[in-house]
Design brief:
By secondary structure, the protein is an alpha/beta fold. It folds into 2 domains: 9-97 and 190-279, 3-Layer(aba) Sandwich (Rossmann fold), CATH 3.40.50; 110-188, no CATH class. It is built from 11 helices and 10 strands. The protein has helices at residues 60-68, 90-96, 113-121, 129-134, 138-155, 173-185, 203-220, 231-237, 255-259, 262-269, 271-278, and strands at residues 22-31, 34-44, 49-53, 75-80, 83-84, 98-100, 191-195, 223-227, 240-245, 248-253. The strands form 2 sheets. A 6-stranded mixed sheet has the order 6-7-8-3-9-10, with helices on both faces. It has a 4-stranded antiparallel sheet with strand order 2-1-4-5, covered by helices on one side. Helix 3 packs parallel to helix 6 (173-185). The longest helix is centred in the middle third of the chain and has 18 residues, at 138-155. The relative contact order is 0.17.
Length: 279
Amino acid sequence: MTSLATPNASASPDGAAPEPLLRAEGVYLGFGGIQALAGVSLDVMPGEITAVIGPNGAGKTSLFNTLSGFYRPQRGRVLLEGRDLTGVSADRRAALGLARTFQNVALFRGMSVLDNIKLGGHTRLNANPLTALWYRGPAQREEMALRREIERDVIDFLEIDHIRHLPVAGLAYGLQKRVELARALAMRPKVLMLDEPVAGMNREETEDMARFILDIQEERGITVLLIEHDMGLVMDISHHVVVLNFGQVIGQGTPAQVRANPEVVRAYLGDEATRRVTQ
């Protein structure tokens, strides 16, 4: 059985600089008279954690929805491993390795934790509709193998074995966010896209989630792209930060570079804070 872990692609065998794993090129997205994204370009490098930050309404979730296939841009391209995905459906992108969580928890509340997580793995099952309906032979064996794999590589990893048979509706919010992360991991992603993974969490839950994200990147080599408002978390765990404002990239670089960027400070804190940074 192949592990859910993904090899770390950040190192090139010949020593050459790696190519971006996920790329947006000049993406424009509008709704009527509202320009949600205006020429946004970004590179997500393999094996790294890239954060997208910006004020409310900056276009962060619109960017995620465009990358994952929920929206199709009016102009520009989305590429995964050099392949143009701009016209590819969201479900096909998921099968190709783009997994995501949502700003608001999107779980099936009447189902158990285990069944919710298994849904993520179904993008990798080979059973056709007839064998799945009959649920005998290959379909049943494949389903059981998926369950064993999830229990070993996801549930234990995220420390949720004690709740795996409980219905999602009865769980605390922080545990629901962890279950949603588990479902995304079950897809065995090349890029794990996390939309505000610690929103609404207390400090202890935030620290746990930060630890899991770091372990996903460091131990499993999975590339992470996240949106987050918790600047402490972003600056602590990110390799690269991209800043959006009014649908445009206004700054990017390492956390230290972004923290010192006057335009970024102005977008968040106003002109007085910008003057203090530049003095």
